[in-house]
Please model this.
Amino acid sequence: MIMYKNNKTSVVVSVYNEKMLIKFTLKSIPDYIDKIYTELDGFPDKTFESIDEMAEKYRKIIPIKQEFNSGTDAEIVTGYKRSLEDGIDIASSYG
Model:
């Protein structure tokens, strides 16, 4: 695990209809980030398949899938709660 100043870090990425950009977005997150929580809800396009593909390649990507669209704020809160559960010291949102 790569740490930032001895802290475990995470980023919460709220995603909706981002099939074209999600891989670029996930690859652009700095290496010192330990976990990337991708909160996806409503998923009318094939974004989740792209996230799953990235998660298989990069173990630090954690897909969180919701069947309904709860909105960006709720997605970020869910990602922050997951960060707390996983013992993350510093969490932020991205996107």
The two ends are 23 Å apart (CA to CA). Residues 41 and 70 are 7 Å apart (CA to CA). Strands lie at 9-15, 35-41, 61-66, 90-94. The chain is about 35% helix and 25% strand.
